[in-house]
Automatic annotation (TrEMBL):
PANTHER family: PREPHENATE DEHYDROGENASE (PTHR21363), PREPHENATE DEHYDROGENASE [NADP(+)] (PTHR21363:SF0). GO terms for molecular function: NAD+ binding; prephenate dehydrogenase (NAD+) activity; prephenate dehydrogenase (NADP+) activity. It comes from Chlorobaculum tepidum (strain ATCC 49652 / DSM 12025 / NBRC 103806 / TLS). The gene is tyrA. Residues 6-288 form the Prephenate/arogenate dehydrogenase domain. Keywords: Oxidoreductase. InterPro entries: 6-PGluconate_DH-like_C_sf, NAD(P)-bd_dom_sf, PDH_C, PDH_N, Preph/Arog_dehydrog, Prephen_DH. This is Prephenate dehydrogenase. Gene3D superfamilies: 6-phosphogluconate dehydrogenase C-terminal like domain, NAD(P)-binding Rossmann-like Domain. Its EC number is 1.3.1.12. GO terms for biological process: tyrosine biosynthetic process.
């Protein structure tokens, strides 16, 4: 395979951006490659720059957009709406052969904007995270064994750089999975965005009793601690899918309430059994 990725730029060096940078650098070393890792984050001060280019492994901190975007692969690692806006800046500075990616939690809107601008683009969503934020909490192990969703049109998948990116992710211990941007947003509205809003609503609904809650409630409510600054962009860019999922779940919840009120224990037992089986499968997959 031709090795076309010699430089990767990360625009944003928070938890996911810095962890991805470290994982790809480790993958490059493991496969005998020398890939220069370039990055920029507007929130960094002098001490952050020293740390990110020292113990964290960034090769060069580059504030000049003309030099920052002059790379084989550019990865936008800011919040969703900011990444969409950054495509205009990227378009002004990237080369014709540059592949642009991102780590946003929604994909359809940014993919449409990239297509409109004529940018070769492949959306990337690492299914990983932790409660701590910032490059200080970053680690290549954060992505070990984790799914990384790659969203693009078929034509982009056939390019050398896209194929090489998928190979680097595998070498980093990730599990690349391909789907369209539209499918991604439908799927993650169901298994990510809906649970977040359920957790948020649950905490609001139970506000008067939380001081007596036990660990089970705390587990259910964990996502309620997520920052609105992150989730505003996700909701804004995936409103329709999220609303569809919430309405469907509300209808299911109403059905369950009717079964509880009517004492339909056979139907409730069936739901418990199905949920138990699905939970067991989820646990087995998580431990594999």
């Amino acid at each position: 395979m031709q090795q076309g990725i010699h430089t990767i730029s990360f625009v944003g060096l928070g938890l996911i951006g810095a962890s991805l940078m470290q994982a790809l650098k480790r993958a490059a070393g493991a496969t005998g490659r020398n890939i220069e890792m370039i990055g920029f984050d507007p929130a960094f001060d002098a001490a952050d720059i020293v740390a990110i280019t020292g113990e964290c492994g960034l090769d060069r901190f580059e504030p000049d957009p003309a030099k920052l975007y002059n790379a084989d692969l550019v990865v936008l690692c800011a919040p969703v709406v900011t990444n969409i806006a950054l495509l205009d800046e990227a378009k002004r500075h990237i080369r014709k052969d540059t592949l642009v990616s991102d780590v946003s939690s929604t994909k359809a809107e940014i993919a449409a904007k990239a297509q409109e601008l004529g940018i070769e683009f492949i959306g990337m969503h690492p299914i990983a995270g932790r409660e701590q934020q910032g490059y200080q909490a970053a680690s290549p192990e954060l992505l070990d064994g984790r799914l990384v969703i790659l969203c693009t049109e078929c034509a982009t998948l056939e390019t050398t750089l896209a194929t090489e990116l998928a190979g680097l992710l595998r070498a980093a211990g990730c599990k690349p999975l391909f789907m369209s941007p539209e499918e991604h947003d439908r799927v993650y509205a169901n298994i990510s965005h809906l649970p977040q809003l359920i957790s948020t609503a649950l905490m609001a609904h139970c506000r008067e009793n939380v001081e007596w809650a036990g660990p089970g409630f705390a587990s259910m409510a964990r996502l309620a601690g997520s920052p609105w600054a992150v989730w505003r962009d996700i909701v804004e860019t995936n409103r329709s899918n999220i609303a569809d999922e919430m309405e469907a779940f509300s209808a299911l919840l109403a059905d369950v309430a009717g079964e509880v009120r009517g004492g339909n224990f056979e139907a409730l037992e069936s739901k418990f059994r199905e949920a138990n089986d699905l939970y067991q499968r989820l646990q087995e997959r998580s431990s594999s």
